[in-house]
């Protein structure tokens, strides 16, 4: 989760017993034990419904886990308990801010700051927190108020941490300044694992695996029970393909936090690293426990498709069924083009060509940025089936709508499709585009030559339309191409055509004709046509 999403759970005023209980709930939240934290907050509200602090921090909890409406409800409740309570005033304005009325919320914040003469660090802290974590962020204002907080309350560890987060969120170039604030926090509590993890994340952002890993290990040593240190370390290892180390960290994380929510994060990390076979049992386990959402369904049907080395048709059927379940629960705006692509892949494995193509077209229609890619996928499917009319249809569409995204290999396949469909004029045109796109590729010149041979086949007298293309083909061959032998038959064909040209065209040239027919014999000493030429 975003660091600015309320990792700050410092306490306000209250009875000692109440503060300790609220502190426990906040601590569980920091440790990502959200199910236990939720129960603690609920109990606190039940025991003391008049506590502004309990309602405020329960609202912060809901904001952290992404339940904004519940957060706003709790903040409004906190604001209504005691109209004179400063935290309650901030809470009511915070509810407005998260509801989208940032103007009124800002006016109310200013009034509260004026009433407290800008000397109440708790008020300034919570206002800064709102600007830093709200749906519309104002990081400069948050920074300004946080600097007031640490000036007024230089022992406020959470304020230093949030200030570091705010600086880093403004720009990666603020990494040194952010680290300075984290160091200020560590000066207050040298063994604070949460702060050490922050420093590790800075090294991770600049791709320094060793220093990031060292800091995560420091955090784990400082507080072996701080679960996020293991999760973050696991994700670092995933990022750098250190999968064994990543699994070890995840196992330690799950020992501290063996909940469905924790396993969901584990499965998401494995899935993000394309470890589909490892992710699959984790997803199945949490779904069996009733932890189901659109993301678990998406990961499940993708993973069932990807983790099927045996190409088991029943597993593809199950994957398709889970994709149907995904579409049933996913809001329309949450469905992405790759969802349809995967459904297309599944239908393809099940041999349902029409439905495969249908899904790819749905993907292309909803994502213009990837539409060209999906059209290429459709063309490849038609190429595999040797359905050249349909392949031509798709490439015509792509060339018309996304000409800059046509690749050389696609022009090659496009031209060949026209050639095999015996539309030699269009084949000549498309191969001409290929030659322009990739002039050093010998195949483009060769196949344009072949298309022109066909265009010339009924011409009287023969116009030798392919002469320039065959010459360009031979000129494009590298020594490596020639040595490989893969172009041998094509070289013989080109040399024979050019040999015939210098013998029978108006541009007769015996020296050049001899050279061409000698080239044929070099390539194939038993070639009958070449032998017959030299016997004349």
Give a short summary of the structure.
With 536 residues, the protein is an all-alpha fold.
Number of helices: 30
Biggest sheet details:
none
Beta-strand segment tally: 0
- Overall 3D shape: elongated
Beta-strand share of residues:
under 5%
Features:
single chain, 536 residues, mainly alpha, 30 helices, 75% helix, 0% strand, elongated
Task: Describe this entry's structure for a reader.
By secondary structure, this protein is mainly α. Helices cover 75% and strands 0% of the residues. It contains 30 helices and no strands. Helix 25 (442-455) packs antiparallel against helix 26 (467-476). It is elongated. The termini are far apart.
Secondary-structure topology with pairs:
Blueprint: H1 16-30, H2 34-47, H3 52-64, H4 68-81, H5 86-99, H6 102-115, H7 121-133, H8 139-152, H9 157-170, H10 175-188, H11 193-205, H12 209-222, H13 227-239, H14 243-256, H15 260-272, H16 276-288, H17 294-306, H18 313-329, H19 337-349, H20 353-366, H21 368-384, H22 388-401, H23 408-420, H24 424-437, H25 442-455, H26 467-476, H27 479-484, H28 488-504, H29 510-523, H30 528-535
Helix pairs in contact: 1-2, 2-3, 3-4, 4-5, 5-6, 5-7, 7-8, 8-9, 9-10, 10-11, 11-12, 11-13, 12-13, 13-14, 15-16, 16-17, 17-18, 17-19, 18-19, 19-20, 20-21, 21-22, 22-23, 23-24, 23-25, 24-25, 25-26, 26-28, 28-29, 29-30
